[in-house]
Design goal:
It is a single chain. The chain contains 13 helices and 15 strands. The chain has a five-stranded mixed beta sheet with strand order 6-5-4-7-10. Strands 13-12-11-14-15 form a five-stranded mixed beta sheet, with helices on both faces. Strands 1-3-2 form a three-stranded antiparallel beta sheet. The chain is globular.
């Protein structure tokens, strides 16, 4: 009986995945998509309704023929917490099964903070999210962290922007503090997973997601499966060297890409020209207004980013590229320069049919991706249902 129950639940996964991506729809449309008979679909839907994982929405607006009852995923069935760590802020969300934000929290740092200040802010944000969630519905906590990981336990390493957190064990910290072991990923990987799972980019073919903000990250995926090493890291594009005798980077090397086109690099270069350090909103406003000093620095950063993306195109020949992160907030002029540089710096054969998308620059997208790792398990493992 247990094996029969597990088989029926295994058969329900294709239904859940179709509803997750394309719902709501009728039982007849589900049967057509699954190439099976209506009786089988009706049985599966009944089981899922009993579990409260899907719900009925009433009759469709038929333009001919008999109106049919619509079925959809009950996105409120379970929730997940996603937290994104950044040197400049911490973002947190509670999301439903469709990635919609139920609760959002953010703590923005003003100036340089210590490792202790950072952890205190993380505790404050986590407390708020846990207080606002329904523990009975909680799938877990996902955390997207900057830096790399030293081993499979996701212990932080090479935390160049906040060295006091070197060797910090996020999993151990959350388990001891809240009794919950989080799913820890790299920020670039989490952002990429959000693009694949909720934005449905790169589901087929080779995908590159370029994250350009306080750091520069690049993650690859093949047919919707992220390519990363055994420690869960997707790579460090920002710390590939572009100028052998270039400016020193916080990682200890010289001439890294992040010294040329990250947010911190732009702020530093503008400060040298203007005599004062501007906030990111001030930089964006100045760029939009055509401020000469800001425009020169930001345009140059756009060219460097375009060269970096072109190098990845020449190396990996992707089918689709998603550009995302805080730098995308500089708008159409910035993006156009990036694309023009890509066009002149990559082989034309790799540009044919290449799709380049500018995706959401909102800070919450990384936190949503961190939570998406937990949500996705519902649609992959029938034993969780």
């Amino acid at each position: 009986m247990l094996q029969l129950k597990n088989m029926r639940r295994q058969n329900s996964l294709p239904v859940l995945n179709i509803l997750n991506g394309d719902g709501p729809m009728s039982r007849a449309e589900l049967a057509r998509r699954l190439h099976c008979n209506g009786t089988t679909v009706t049985r599966i839907i009944k089981d899922l309704i009993d579990l409260e994982l899907v719900k009925t929405l009433g009759l469709d607006n038929s333009t001919g023929g008999r109106p049919q009852e619509l079925i959809d995923l009950n996105a409120d069935w379970k929730h997940a917490i996603g937290i994104a760590l950044d040197p400049d802020y911490i973002s947190g969300v509670i999301i439903d099964l469709k990635g919609r934000i139920i609760v959002r929290e953010q703590i923005i740092f003003k100036g340089v903070q210590s490792g202790r200040d950072f952890l205190d802010a993380l505790i404050t944000l986590a407390n708020r999210l846990l207080a606002a969630c329904d523990r009975q519905k909680l799938l877990g906590i996902g955390i997207a962290a900057f830096g790399t990981f030293s081993d499979e336990n996701r212990v932080l390493e090479n935390v160049v922007q906040l060295p006091e957190l070197e060797k910090f064990d996020l999993k151990k910290f959350f388990k001891e503090t809240y009794g919950i072991e989080p799913e820890v990923s790299n920020t670039a990987v989490a952002k990429t997973f959000n693009e694949i799972w909720f934005n449905h980019n790169g589901v087929n073919g080779n995908l590159l997601v370029i994250i350009a903000g306080s750091g520069i990250g690049c993650t690859a995926a093949i047919d919707g499966q992220i390519v990363f090493n055994k420690h869960g890291h997707g790579g460090e594009l920002g710390h590939t060297i572009y100028q052998l005798d270039g400016e020193p980077c916080k990682c200890g090397k010289h001439g890294c890409l992040e010294t040329l086109c990250s947010i911190s690099a732009i702020r530093k270069k503008v400060a040298l020209q203007c005599g004062k350090t501007l906030t990111v909103p001030e930089l964006i406003a100045g760029y939009a207004a055509g401020d000469a000093a800001i425009t020169e620095v930001v345009d140059t950063a756009a060219k460097w980013l375009g060269i970096a993306v072109a190098n990845q195109i020449n190396l990996l020949a992707p089918d689709e590229i998603v550009l995302t992160g805080e730098l995308m907030k500089f708008g159409n002029r910035f993006l156009q320069i990036v694309k023009e540089t890509i066009a002149t710096s990559s082989f034309s054969v790799f540009q044919k049919d290449l799709k380049i998308i500018c995706s959401s620059a909102e800070e919450e997208s990384t936190a949503i991706g961190a939570g998406a790792f937990l949500v996705s398990r519902i649609f992959k493992n029938f034993l969780l249902i």
